[in-house]
Amino acid sequence: MPSDPGEHDDPTAPIGVIAGGGLLPVIVARGIRAAGRVAVGIGLRGQFHPELPAACDRFATAGTLKIGQWIRAARRMGARDAIMVGRVSKERMHDPIAILRDLPDLRGAWFWYRRVRGKDNRSSRLLAAVAEELLRGGVRLIDSTRFIPDQLSTEGVMNAVRPTDRQWGEVSFGWPILHQIAALDVGQAIAVRAGDVIAVEAVEGTDALIARAGELSRFRGWTLLKTARDDHDLRADVPTVGVATIENLARAGAGCLALGAGRVILLDKPAVLAAADRHAIAVVGVPRAGGSPEALAALGAR
Q: In a structure prediction context, what are the per-residue pLDDT tens digits for the chain, which is 302 residues long?
């Protein structure tokens, strides 16, 4: 079996969707079907969105920690390639009660013992270990954005609201800092205002970061920056924002959302940008290299 996740032996074969929470697995399943492929859903029990079964051609459920069950379900429904998307909070890894409620199967327990317990469990390392275990079972993870290119961030101003000169400056100031944080695999977002970092994302996630930044900044109009590390494995954990993100930003007093161009998924992109317009929040796509405030503003004027 080829080990390259970009290779495909059969362009007509079903594609598995190993689905955590949120709308993204639904959007991915719809994208697979729109491309003329069969979408096979494996919903993680207690996690997956209620619309997911109807979005798939075939569907089964599996325990969150039951990796062997994921593999058997995918293979039983004909999928040898799969996309793993949706929220499964890493906080569960640090919650013994959550683990007891969803005990792993034998394969999951062995995986935990050999690859997780006492090891480096930052997202990129954990994903690589999960992907390797799935491949050992005959299921290959592929790029999670393959079937949803229209949902990705693009360079320049994406909606009708333009950033202020101060916000362009915040993007320029914060972008190299965010790249360093992302490179360390600490988090994928920071909040910035007036040449200062207000808050940094870690295991708590972007929504909690936004709430904290709103509490710490008494001034409205601050900027949220979000991207993936340069060598990010697109097979999972691609940064996402949705309508709820925009609503949270508005409540917390943010005025600008800067996203790595081609590196962040907008869940239902038209709805996200419409929500940003309603709340007067600028949404911009930033090239990997960032740039000066003037260069970024010129990019936004295209």
A: 344 444 456 888 999 999 999 999 999 999 999 999 999 999 998 889 999 999 999 999 998 888 889 999 999 999 999 999 998 755 555 555 555 556 566 565 565 656 655 555 555 667 777 888 899 999 999 999 999 999 999 999 999 999 999 999 999 999 999 999 998 888 999 999 999 999 999 888 899 999 999 999 988 999 999 999 888 888 877 899 999 999 999 999 999 999 999 999 999 999 999 999 999 999 999 998 888 888 888 876 54
Domains contained in the chain, CATH given: 15-141 (3.40.50.20), 152-300 (3.40.140.80)
Q: Could you please report the per-residue DSSP string of 189-242?
A: EEEEETTEEEEE--TT-HHHHHHHHHHH--SS-EEEEE---TT--TTS---EE-
